[in-house]
Amino acid sequence: MIKLTDIHKSYEMGSNKLHVLKGIDLDIHQGEFVSIMGSSGSGKSTLLNILGILDNYDQGSYHLGGKLISNMTEKKAAQLRNEMVGFVFQSFNLISFKNAMENVALPLYYKGVNRKKRNMIAMEYLDRLGLKPWAEHMPNEMSGGQKQRVAIARALISKPQIILADEPTGALDTSTSYEVMEILREINDAGITVIIVTHEHDIASMTQKIVRLKDGRIDEVILNGELADFRERYSKELQPV
Amino acid sequence: MFDLDLWKEILSALKQNRMRSFMTAFGVFWGIFMLIIMSGAGRALENGVLEGVKSFATNSAFFWTERTSVPFEGFQRGRRWDYDNQDIEYIRQNVREVEYLSPRLFGWQQDGDNTVRGERTGAFNIYGDYPDYFKIDGWTPIKGRLMNEIDVREKRKVCVIGERVVEVMFAKDEDPIGQYLKISGVYFQVVGVIHPETKINIGGGKKEETIIIPFTTMQTAYNYGNVIHFFSVTAKKGHSVSDLQDKLKTILKERHKIAPDDLQAVGSFNIEAEFIKFNALFTGIQVLTWIVGIGTLFAGIIGVSNIMLVIIKERTQEIGIQRAIGATPGKIITHIVAESVFLTVMAGYVGLSLGVGLLELLSMALEAGGEELFFRNPQVDLKMALSALAVLVISGMFAGLIPAKRAINIKPIDALRDEG
Ligand SMILES: Nc1ncnc2c1ncn2[C@@H]1O[C@H](COP(=O)(O)OP(=O)(O)OP(=O)(O)O)[C@@H](O)[C@H]1O
Ligand SMILES: [Mg+2]
User: Fold this and answer.
1) Quick one: CA torsion of B11, B14, B17, B20, rounded to 10 degrees?
2) Cβ-defined contact of B5 to A74 (cutoff 8 Å)
3) Is A117 within the bounds of a domain?
4) Which domain holds residue A197?
5) Are B326 and A81 in contact (CB < 8 Å)?
6) What is the CATH number of the domain that holds A81?
7) Is the pLDDT of residue B420 over 70?
């Protein structure tokens, strides 16, 4: 599904260069549930943006669904994003002057689906996420958890193969976070690859595979089976606060 | 293809920013409004003036005499002189460029009440003319007829009179035709009531206060002898009236022993030159109108472009989200350009309608207020309105294009990061 080989990425800031990703090799298979961890500034978001074709990389190769992603026109990238990827952001990123249903329906607008049909589909997804009564509400009339569910519905509506979520629970309290993770798990159960970035170990421990970044490289990859071990190692941090 | 969704998107975006949309639109509105009003006013002035001169022969020149200003062949300067019948004969026979030639005698209004009919008296402009005069300065007979060749040849004591003369000399329900007027002691029979076709007036006074009698009758009846006060000529097709004017001046100076370098003695005036000045003036007004109008419009459009830039900046994140979830650059550009065109055209349309409406009102007011104005029919032609609309659409597109380019140059990832 996703195959990264020796990915490098640096940001140019005036005369100096900030080398953020220094050779990332990573394979993610269809249907995996992966979390990316690492300290602040370690390049998690950068990596996720490259995965979502929101940003390009300097060196190496990135194959998505067997296709090499490099030097794409913005148009092609937009279409590919629309087909393959759904995004969920920490700050929800809903469009403020559209109600929940219209926000969810937006990706279908770019696909050329007519208004009636896409609003109907949007209602289905809202219903699935328990938000049907909120369909007509504007984003500023909803709680963080509701907004994030709307965002997830929007990510799902174009039937993507991958959901990319950058700190999807970063702005939510613990119980809402768990609800959101439960939703993501259900999505994953349906066969969609889910990749999240998170700082929270308990959130990460709900995924099947944890990729830890350090200094622009993959420090360790903890697989499902090793999670028990992982739990032990980080038990202190996993104590309920 | 009509994309209803696109329009819904645009309307909701504009509604979202009601005040700003309005302010932006106002610039364009004002530009087109001013353009229409100024152009209409300029056109009205032109219409009014041209209406007043349109049936005046533009290839005509006029001659009168002044005192000499240079001593010559024993004559002192300051000598008074007159044209005479021989001059006219000579010109008729020797100057082939002349089309019409019409000598005239004046009986001055300033001399006091020169016209009597029973109890009624009045002071009018009395002219002795040839029928050719009507070919140079058009008059329409509203009753009876114009003066003709036979009147002149037979020195008939007949006259044609202006409307004001009828008002003063006759009772309301009286028919002036066939009646007699005593003009400076001589009886003349009224054969026509005439209406001026032009507002150009040679000799001063009101055109409606004119009495025209046959030139020959006037010369004999009032003992003018051979004298001619004034004459009008027109040039034949293909000849410049200015050249003719110069040629006649030379001939007249020779015939009357006037110094060739005397610039004052032969008084003359040439309508062609005046018309050229008029036309230049109106072209100037129109050009100025367009420059000012387009300038104002341009300022409005810069405004639209500017506002669109601000909108784009404010919507950076929104555009980033849209692009993250699959909006292609083409879609974004279409959206922004359509929004800009929509704003521009709507504003322009309102400006256009209001401008045209105002001119229409003005036009109606003028019509109701009589015709004595050099300001007439201030309408905007459809062609101009349509070209203004085309200018609007195109400029709306340009106004949107720069911000749209800016918008797609922002990488979606940067747009998303711009969270403030
Ligand atoms: N557009 C950019 N231009 C310059 N530097 C950038 C840019 N984006 C990110 N960086 C830098 O790259 C490094 C990695 O950034 P990134 O956002 O990937 O970190 P992160 O792991 O997501 O951190 P956090 O946990 O705080 O979100 C940081 O030092 C950041 O300052
Ligand atoms: Mg980050």
Assistant:
1) -150
2) no
3) yes
4) 2-235
5) yes
6) 3.40.50.300
7) no
- Tokens 């007004």 identify what position? B285
For CA atoms B233, B234, B235, B241, the dihedral sign is positive
Q: Give, using CA atoms, the residue closest to atom 19 of ligand 1.
A: A41
Q: What residue ranges in chain A does DSSP mark as E strands?
A: 2-13, 16-28, 33-38, 59-64, 67-68, 85-89, 162-166, 193-197, 209-214, 217-223
Residue B311 CA to ligand 1 center (angstroms) comes to 27
Which ligand neighbours the alpha carbon of B417 most closely?
A: 1
* Separation between Cα atoms, residue B205 and residue A168, nearest integer Å: 93
Of A49, A79, A95, the CB nearest to B328: A79
**Separation in Å, CA of A125 to nearest CA in chain B:** 16
User: How many inter-chain contacts (A to B, CB under 8 Å) are there?
Assistant: 69
Confidence grade of residue A6 (pLDDT, cut at 50, 70, 90): very high
A42 lines ligand 1 (CB under 6 A): yes
Give the pLDDT confidence score for residue B387 in this predicted structure: 78
B372: its two tokens? 């004595």
Residue whose pair of structure tokens reads 């990123």 in the numeric block: A93
A46 Cβ below 6 A of ligand 1? yes
Q: Note whether residue A100 is domain-resident.
A: yes
In a domain, A240, yes or no: no
> What pLDDT shows up at residue B184?
87
Residue A218 DSSP SS3: strand
Beta bridge partners of A218: A213
- State the pLDDT at residue A228: 61
Give how many domains chain A has, as a whole number. Answer: 1
Q: Is residue A83 part of a domain?
A: yes
What is the pTM assigned to this prediction? 0.65
Which comes out higher in pLDDT, residue B379 or B143?
B143
- The first and second tokens of residue B170, run together, are 């006759």
Residue A72 CA to ligand 1 centre (angstroms)? 23
Q: For B270-307, how does the pLDDT look when each residue is reduced to its tens digit (9 = 90+)?
A: 888 777 887 888 888 888 887 887 887 788 778 878 87
Q: Which atom of ligand 1 is nearest to the CA of B414?
A: 1
Phi, psi of B376 (to 5 degrees): -150, 135
pLDDT tens digits for B39-49? 788 777 777 77
Nearest to B324 among A81, A94, A109 (CB): A81
| Chain B residues 172-231 with a CB less than 8 Å from chain A | none
Q: Are B27 and B303 in contact (CB under 8 A)?
A: yes
Is the pLDDT reported for residue A154 higher than 90? Answer: yes
Given the structure tokens 């290839």, which residue do they identify?
A: B59
Q: Is the pLDDT of residue B57 over 80?
A: no
Of A191, A125, A182, give the one whose Cα is nearest residue A160.
Answer: A191
**Residue in the structure block whose two tokens are 């929270």:** A200
Instruction: Please identify which residue in the block is written with the tokens 């689906």.
Output: A113
Contacts with B325 from chain A: Cβ below 8 Å = 81-82, 86-87, 106-107, 110, 154-155, 158
Domain locations along chain B = 4-54+276-417, 103-220
What pLDDT digit, counting tens, does each position of B124-169 carry? 888 999 998 888 888 888 888 999 999 999 999 999 999 988 988 9
In short, whether A133's Cβ falls inside 6 Å of ligand 1 is no
Any chain B CB within 8 A of the CB of A52? yes
